[in-house]
Task: structure prediction
Amino acid sequence: MKNLQLIGLFLVVAGSFLPLVHIPIVGNWNYWKVDNTLAIVLWGFSLLTLVFILIGKTKFVKIMAFLMILLFVFTLVAIKLKSLDYFSFLTFKSWQSTFAGIVKLSWGWFIEFLGAVVILIASRKNKIELQSY
Result:
């Protein structure tokens, strides 16, 4: 199951370079353009996850995968709030939410979440296999 965990980790890292947010005039943004700090935190989590996978610490791998999912959810909420804040100069709330609605999430999030879920599932199966012996 180590291979499956590594595939999930690859999906998470590759997902950070895929388009995550689409802004009509500006274009597509990946994790690095959304926020450098969050991207560095994600890569730090990925590096720790790789170390834990290689030394066989399944419990820590699951914790890191869960932290990655929390980071993704936090980033999604931050994107939504930032887009509302970006258009705060508009006088009417309905205009603010309308213009903030043009900021769309892209398909890269699917790859990010898929990678973290694969890591979690592979960690669970790895533990079950170890108990059967």
